[in-house]
Please model this.
Amino acid sequence: CIEAMDLLMDVAGGRSVYLGSEFQDLWHDVRMSRAHVANNPTGFARNYANVLMGGENADYFL
Model:
C-alpha cells in the first residue's frame, strides 16, 4: 500500500504536496501509520530471524 501511495504521489503533480491537499493528507496518514511499531514488520522480522538462528531475543514487547 505504501509503495502504491508513493507512486501516486510521484505522478500527482505539484498541487498534491501542499498542506491541506486531500491527497497529501491521505499520503501522510498512510506513511505515519507505518511508523507505529505494530505496523512495521522489519524490526520484528529481524529479531525473529535472529532468534531462529540461536540469537538473543531483543523484542521487549514479548
Q: What stands out?
A: The chain has one domain: 2-52.
